[in-house]
Amino acid sequence: MTVADFWAIVDRVHMASGGNMPRKCKLLEEELHKLSADEVQSFDQHFSNYYYQAYTQDLWGAAFIICGGCSDDSFMDFRSTLVSMGRTVFEHAMADADSLVEQNIEHYEGYQYPAVLIYKHKTGREMPRYKHHPKRCKGLAFKEWAMSKRFPKLTAKYGYKDSDWSHDKRQVSRQNKRFGYILKTAEEPKKLRRSLANLLLDSGIIPACGFIPPLRIVAGVLLQGHFAGATGKRCSWKPFKLDEGDYWLAVNKLENLKPKDLERKAVILAAKLQLDIGTPAGDQYSEWLQSLGQRGLT
User: Fold this and answer.
1) Is 109 helix (H, G, I), strand (E, B) or coil?
2) Are 265 and 208 in contact (CB under 8 A)?
3) Does residue 172 sit within a domain?
4) Number of structural domains, the chain?
5) Angstrom distance (rounded) from CA 7 to CA 46
6) Do 191 and 75 reside in the same domain of the chain?
7) Residues 146, 52: Cα–Cα separation, whole Å
8) Is residue 170 a part of any domain in this protein?
9) Are 188 and 47 found together in one domain?
10) Alpha-carbon distance 113 to 47, whole Å?
11) Which distant-in-sequence residues (6+ apart) come within 8 Å of 144 by Cβ?
12) Which of 78, 83, 126, 172 shows the smallest number of beta carbons within 10 Å?
């Protein structure tokens, strides 16, 4: 089966269905029943090629706007539906995802199955897989808070507002935030630029027992601009005022570290990190560390 033969079937079925997806899938089954098993396999190979080609950030962003959000699974169904709409619509969408403003498209699960089912019916075997799904989605990743310039027509049609995603923008900014610091070891000093979670671990602010100091304790240490851990390793940085959002993001990341991640940190003896929530009053790190011993936590 040639590419032209494949699209002829897809276009014919699409026109006959009137765009109704359940009817389209039924009509496709009827078309494929007329073919030999080899032709059905060839149809599926062409379908897979175009389905994989459509794994792009532009189309995923368009699907996100059209569908009001779009997960991995939903994007699979969206791409199948896109192929089902015929060659012209597919090629226009590949060239400019914003062109989908002219279409009524949804993520419908079903069009990807008829060829597989008909082949098994004809041969008694599963459809051969000659190609694997791409691991990476092609193109520049879309950002939910910056869609209007990238998809002006679709955002206008669906009333999508970038401003509705300002919180997500701040969260991503926090996740990507890096802090510069210097670790003074027995060898030469190491200049590092890593996340706040890394700074707390590398500096020794988190002691061997694995308890994360409360916000006020960490904030006080970071304002000092230097720290000497129990091992004698010294760390320094430009003093800064700790943002509470940065702190809680770091705590979440630290508490979700697996034991194998902590094994690389020779200073940490605990299998899991956890926030110290029973700390007494006081703002000094030394007082907090002493309280751990008094509470039998070291």
Assistant:
1) coil
2) no
3) no
4) 2
5) 9
6) no
7) 25
8) no
9) no
10) 11
11) 64, 162, 165, 168, 169
12) 126
User: Which amino acid makes up residue 111?
Assistant: Y
Which tokens is 102 given? 């002219």
Phi, psi dihedrals of residue 77, rounded to the nearest 5°: -65, -35
Per-position pLDDT tens, the chain of length 298 = 999 999 999 999 999 999 999 999 999 999 999 999 999 999 999 999 999 999 999 999 999 999 999 999 999 999 999 999 999 999 999 999 999 999 999 889 999 999 999 999 999 999 998 788 899 999 999 999 999 999 999 999 999 998 888 776 677 777 788 999 999 876 788 899 999 999 999 999 999 999 999 999 999 999 999 999 776 779 999 999 998 988 998 999 999 998 888 877 767 888 899 999 877 778 899 999 999 988 888 8
One domain for residues 91 and 202: no
DSSP of 34-65, one letter per residue?
TS-HHHHHHHHHHHHHHHHHT-BHHHHHHHHH
Last-in-domain residue among 165, 186, 203: 165
CB neighbour list of residue 222: distance below 8 Å, 6 or more residues apart? 237, 239, 240, 241, 242
